[in-house]
Amino acid sequence: MSMEMLENNLLTEEQAPQMENLPEMPEPPQETPGESPEETPKRKRASRKKAEKPEEPAVDNLEGGGEPPASEEPPPDEELSEADRLDPKAGAVEDCVVVGLAEQGDDPPPPPEPGEDSFTEEPPPLEDDAAPETGQPEAGEPVRRAVPRTGRAGEGRRPLLSLNLNELDRNLTEQERQEWNDIYASFRSKSVLTGKIIGVEAYTFNVRNNQTGQMERKRMYCAAVIPLKVKILIPETEMWMPGEERPSHVLRNMSGAEIDFVILDVDRKGYVATASRRMAMMIKRRAFDRARGGHELGERLPCRILNVGPSRCLVECGGRDLTLRYQDMSYTSYSDLRKKYRPGDPYDCVLKEYDPASGKMRISIKEATPNPFEGAELRHPLGSRRQAVISGKYGGGVFCTMPDGTTCLCLHTAQHTDRDFQKGDTVIVVIVKFDYEKSLIYGRILSKW
User: Fold this and answer.
1) What is 96-112+147-280's CATH number?
2) How far apart are alpha carbons 374 and 371 in whole angstroms?
3) Is the pLDDT of residue 365 over 60?
4) Which pTM does this prediction carry?
5) What are the extents of the domains in the chain?
6) Does residue 373 contact residue 406 with C-beta atoms inside 8 Å?
7) pLDDT, position 394
8) How far apart are CA 219 and CA 190, in angstroms?
């Protein structure tokens, strides 16, 4: 009976004298561990477990059903293939800023540890930003290396402007002196230089991670440009505009392309410089958008081919990288555009769409040249026989290209089968019809040539 009274928070006769001196409470307080001297050891253990229970679900929810920390979330592009990484959310380019060249090795070096003598774990405050240039810490302060900004000299090298350039350039030839003067001017005033990519190679750089702010060593693909003797490296992170990143295989197939760039860092004694194509594209795009008089649809513009695939081309025009299909490249049908176009080829194009506010732009290289179908009825009258080359096959039809670039859609005779004609074969066709709406000529294949 006494246990029932204790459980219902009632006072027994033995407890009443002890509680007379306590202040009156409107409601009996809830029992907590160690509060009541009359609690049995078993009841104390039960109350302790009850008090500790609310803390456990919080940990379980965090590890199980709750959201994990941001650092533990895998990047969204881990499961994507290399060819699908075309946008920032699935891009192949890491979120980092190239600071300068690093010492090269056979294997990519690991990121610096907090205890290593490279960079501090956390970026120093802004007032320490001048430490790399002076190299003289204040009295009583530990020696720390500040995170350099983009364009600063890499670790272990003196800044370009602190060198005696007159002494270093004394024995140069006139061409070598002009090459270095162009690099110096671009480094100081951010002027745009133009060069041709002679190849792609892997190089190690000191980079600053934009997410953590720490300095790391990264090995990445670089486009190499050598005007005369100086090797200019454009890292993959400095090739594309933000939000317009391309897969790594696009850069590896850009040998021969002519690009614009701005010098970021110079190793004068090593005859190596680091440049940014992204910065040059921003300058050209701003100049194109702010051109006096603006741009009208149908205007002829210059463009350059950067990369060529079987059915698409990557073209640069007005500071923008545009992807063109074969319908926008030529009136002539090609089974593989790589047989006709090469990276670095300059062409004229026609502006088809342009919106400066959104940056949307569309061009056509095909419409900048005369249409070979014009006057075709005079050059190839009905019933005439012509020599042509098979450029493709589709749905039982055969596309044949005549010497003047005119495309003729043909069928073969009943005596032949589709296996008798392959791409690249020379055949004799007879003209049977003209389609002026589609700008096509219809014919029939008579025989191989």
Assistant:
1) 2.40.50.140
2) 6
3) yes
4) 0.64
5) 96-112+147-280, 293-368, 381-448
6) yes
7) 81
8) 25
pLDDT-derived band at 95 (thresholds 50, 70, 90) equals low
Residue 52 pLDDT: 52
Q: In the predicted model, is pLDDT for residue 164 greater than 60?
A: yes
- pLDDT on residue 38: 47
Could you give the CA distance from residue 27 to residue 22 in angstroms, rounded to a whole number?
13
The tokens of 191 are what? 């002027």
Residue 417: predicted pLDDT: 86
> Using one digit for the tens of pLDDT, what is the confidence trace for 57-72?
333 332 333 333 333 3
Are 109 and 217 contacting, i.e. CB atoms less than 8 angstroms apart? yes
Cβ–Cβ contacts within 10 Å for residue 359, how many?
Answer: 14
Structure tokens of 379? 């050059």
Task: Supply 36's token pair.
Answer: 């009541």
Instruction: Give yes or no for a contact between 329 and 282, defined as CB atoms under 8 angstroms apart.
Output: no
**201 or 84: which leads in pLDDT:** 201
For domain 381-448, the question of CATH label 2.30.180.10 is answered with: no
Task: Please give the CATH superfamily to which domain 293-368 belongs.
Answer: Nucleic acid-binding proteins (2.40.50.140)
Query: Is the CB of residue 407 less than 8 Å from the CB of residue 401?
Result: yes
Hey, what are 293's tokens? 């008089």
Residue located via tokens 């003797």: 229
Sheet with 300-308: strands ordered across = 320-325, 312-317, 300-308, 346-355, 360-364
Side chain identity, residue 122: E
Rounded to an integer, the average pLDDT of 426-437 is: 93
d(CA 252, CA 201): 8
Task: Render pLDDT for 378-410 as a digit per residue (tens, 0 to 9).
Answer: 999 999 999 999 988 888 889 999 988 888 999
Confidence of residue 47 (pLDDT cuts 50, 70, 90): low
